[in-house]
Amino acid sequence: MIELYHSINSVCAQKVRIALAEKGLSYREHLMTLGGDQFDPSYMKLNPNAVVPTLIHDGQPIIESSVILYYLDEAFPKKPLMPEAALARAKVRLFNKLIDEYVHNSCTILTFATAFRPGLLKLSPEQREAGFAKAPSKKRSEYKRDVVAHGLDSGFVQEAIEHHEKLLSWIDDAMSVGPYLVGDSYSLADIAVIPYILRLELLRLSPMWNRYPGVATWWERIRQRPSTGEAIFSRMTDADAAPFRNLEPDPWIKVRDLLEAA
Length: 262
Fold this sequence. Notes:
Layout: E1 2-6, H1 11-23, E2 28-31, H2 41-46, E3 54-57, E4 60-63, H3 65-75, H4 86-113, H5 117-121, H6 125-134, H7 138-150, H8 157-174, H9 188-202, H10 213-223, H11 226-233, H12 238-241, H13 251-261
Parallel strand pairs: 1-2
Antiparallel strand pairs: 1-3, 3-4
Helix pairs in contact: 1-3, 1-9, 1-11, 4-7, 4-8, 4-9, 6-7, 8-10
């Protein structure tokens, strides 16, 4: 039996839902709001990091989205999502490493500086700080605290943009070799990257890949894939999409200026 603790807008949870859809695996879902329920002691026994997703397979919790992706492919080898060639497998892991070490936190920075900022600013400073203080990752709380205070003027934003630029360049380069990120076969590399390109699009930052035409080619192909629709687009309600509507000021104006200055 598979259970999944997740939320709709979590980029990490989106990855895992895509993999489950590709594998044709059913699961019992526990939908979380991330409005404080991630700090519930019963949940933190499953996931001490107080984040989603958490996968439960036959009663055993597996955490960290990249680890879950590899686990699903090994535990359910039908319809493999890792290529056979050793070099291609290494490339899959490199994409996941880039996401885990650089892009994910950068995505958090851009999202909290824009879409999530208005809602957090409606809270009192004491309420905001109480939420930041609960998070086990003090570094991520530092990012959130600063970008909520300063928006896209935060000192963390420039580097976040640069990490996304690196990802976009990798995708663009990959399209000169094959239709997917590591060649001819759809893989865990594509799955790992999808939510982050979607997030840029939701934040009105798709002009970032105007200089990388391969990204548009890959994204158009990937967004038409049934698993993307099943795991992401069909799951987003109006409430889930609400933070990304009416972004003011338009994030692209500031990001464009930062790109030109760099």
